Amino acid sequence: MSAANMIQLPEKAPLLGRAAWSAWLAALIVLCALVPVLNLLIPADSVFHMSDFAVALVAKIMCFAICALAMDLIWGFTGILSLGHGLFFALGGYAMGMYLMRQIGLDGNYKSALPDFMVFLDWKELPWHWLLSDSFVATLILVVAAPGVVALVFGYFAFRSRIKGVYFSIITQAMTFAAMLLFFRNETGFGGNNGFTDFKRILDIPIATPSMRMTLFVLTALTLLLFFLLARWLVTSKFGRVLQAIRDAESRVMFSGYSPLGYKLTIWVISAMMCGVAGALYVPQVGIINPSEMSPANSIEIAIWAAVGGRATLIGPIVGAFLVNGAKSWLTVTYPEFWLYFLGALFIGVTLYLPDGVVGLVKKLKGDKA
Amino acid sequence: MTPELLEQGAQRVEARMAALAAQAGNTESGGRSAGFGRLKLDDEVDVTHGRILYLESVNVSFDGFKAINNLSLDIAPGELRCIIGPNGAGKTTMMDIITGKTRPDSGTVYFGSTINLLRYNEPQIAQLGIGRKFQKPTVFEQLTVFENLELALKTNKGVKPSLFFKLDSTQRDRLAEILHTIHLADSVTRQAGNLSHGQKQWLEIGMLLMQDPKLLLLDEPVAGMTDEETERTAELFLSLKGKHSLMVVEHDMSFINTISDIVTVLCDGSVLAQGTLAQVQADERVIEVYLGR
User: Fold this and answer.
1) CA distance A206 to chain B (A)
2) What is the Cα–Cα distance from B156 to B27, expressed in whole angstroms?
3) In chain B, fewer beta carbons within 10 Å around the N or the C end?
4) Cα B196 to Cα A47, A317, B187, distances in angstroms
5) In chain A, where the domains are located
6) What domains can you pick out in chain B, each with its CATH number?
7) What is the pTM of this model?
8) ipTM (interface predicted TM)
9) Contact A251 B177 (CB under 8 A)
């Protein structure tokens, strides 16, 4: 046996370790079985009852967690900081919102077949870009296709021109700001600054019933858990290692024979589509979508969730989304004036003292003990 | 025509045939005939003319500064060519041109007889079989030694194949062999960022070897290495010679002395002198640019 054969080469890493699979299954059981039981079956006066408010809050945060996960793929693993992911979230939300507007049917304030805001603007027929909005299947396709196509076109030109680092971040920020201004205009046909609201039905089923709320909650939980597995599969493949290689030394990647354009574009589009799905799940649950979702601050918050939780860990950004948004919902109730200061302080603190986020801190503490 | 003339003619033909037979295998193209009437294969670099790399009258200027000035240079297959020259002589710029990073203002750059390198970008040139080591060791610091080598492995480098990639046993053997060659077999699962400077240099060389390039461009490969590591590197390069063509830029003269056949001296963006190390060291002009007056 030659010396070369003696070397132990590592095997391909599994999708998840044993402990991680157990945690994943536990999360699945809690979110998809325990929460529905606690909310729907346990009477409201019991201590074990989970309030509708809590369910709605967790559902909302899970949508944000999907965005944070998507951000981790592009920022944490590929090193491309996007400050425009709020746009993709909003595009998915608007695609779903259009369908929900059409589902209102003749029950709007003006009893018209057209959405209320169109009647208000004195439009006589549906604009061309609303033609697909009657079909639920078409809507599901649009939810991923709209952010996907925007990301593809934007990404192709940005990455082909080798725009990197802070320049890329600024352009994405400008992109979402420009889109916000566009959507604010009544003529664009998306309800102007009021956006869409007052939804009544989804798939002809009333949207405000407890069972429909819980169905949407479980769907959101399943989406988050499945996206986590998808992201995990992506980053454990050689594709994922090329992404990390692009982050660490792009020139070496090129001289190793890889064209970074295709890799960046693929993960960028996947990330945008994930945000679109999150937006589509968010809108029916909170009951409103308007252009403020595209405001630059929203996109920056997504990056903060990922940074707080820990970049390039996948689980970190999900944890970060829960921590930051949990703190937000508590602080904005108790000390509403301090929220923005807290957010700013949090970002500075994490950048200075926790470059690997909360997950990095936990890992370090564990390592110190062992 | 007389019988004597016929006899003489026959003798001349015999002498010519004998001379040709004696020469066979000794030509720079390995005794093969010149490129008439052969098929051009896509993945084959045509070296039948005895040259794997040609640069002719190449010019590059940056903001008026002529970095490369009418440079012409060629390298034979299997040759180990050392390039020396003072700082700013254009050594790194020349490598940038060959690997597609910099576009020359004028001139021609051919890989073999048929591949015009100016038509390709960096990843394509790497795929064609030109590997490059940077002056500053550049490895993927957050990945392990194993993962670094796996990424460099010669295979289909598109997005989809990467998603479903799995090492097969031949590739595993190849990886193990390279790990052994670069003396990093004990550090398979170590993070590349934690390696010593010399080990990073070795890892980068190992990554080049995984690509299985026909031509290797090595920019200061022994900078920051210990004497022992330098010696091992010299051995490695000498063992690569013949199978691969190498172009080595180095400042370490004792290292060059160990490995070189032909040394090219670059100065102010063009070739100043070429020959064995002893020859160029004796050259007046070379002494002048190195020592000044």
Assistant:
1) 42
2) 35
3) C
4) 59, 33, 11
5) 50-294
6) 43-291 (3.40.50.300)
7) 0.90
8) 0.89
9) no
